[in-house]
């Protein structure tokens, strides 16, 4: 009888757990598990923001990796960010599947030869509609997805963005605020500027934190919160897209 090999994935966590997320979800790791984990899988957590990385000799054990969001700049030269860039280059050479979200999307771009920096339009916070490109040409990894909509609503919270994708990359989604909302390289690299893993309550808590540290003003925060009352993210589709990519289905 053939024994199926256990599928293993790794979350490379580039942020520290907020008090809210610790209290509500017992940490961001559980937020990602809720969004992306399937039965029978093993997920490992590496807090790269705290210099905790997978051993090089263990990389082959993983089917895929997820790089999370972060309050840090993807173009910064903190030691752990430079080390993360080096790891991403190794995973790319190994043709390992890597999903980058927000900061992860930007650091994927930087590591593989693109350019990132401050967003020309300033903060983008809320739920934004992004326009998907020609799916038949771009979505090499998503054959399981029966329908890819022309527009997808996703939670956003960023003030940096991808300026230019790596030479091998294809832009697969854009919005009126951010020109490069998603990009892919072959069937093993996917960057998403928004947060497919977030629920609206997490975004509300982030808005409160940004307001408390004076990163945004009261009127901006009030406008965003008001907009969230009417809008909903296409969370089910986005999670399915990410899982289809990570698991090669």
Automatic annotation (TrEMBL):
Asked whether the keyword Cytoplasm is assigned, the reply is yes
Taxonomy, superkingdom: Eukaryota
Instruction: Name the principal localization, coarsely classed.
Output: cytoplasm
Return the InterPro entries for the record. ChyE-like, GATASE
- GO CC, alphabetical: cytosol
Q: Where in the cell is it found?
A: Cytoplasm, Cytosol
The Glutamine amidotransferase domain extends over: 48-199
Keywords on this record? Cytoplasm, Hydrolase
Pfam families per the UniProt record, alphabetical: GATase (PF00117)
Output one GO MF annotation. peptidase activity
Q: Which pathway does it serve?
A: Secondary metabolite biosynthesis
A single BP term in Gene Ontology: glucosinolate metabolic process
Family assignment from sequence similarity:
Belongs to the peptidase C26 family.
In Swiss-Prot or TrEMBL terms, this protein is called Glutamine amidotransferase domain-containing protein
Native source species: Zingiber officinale
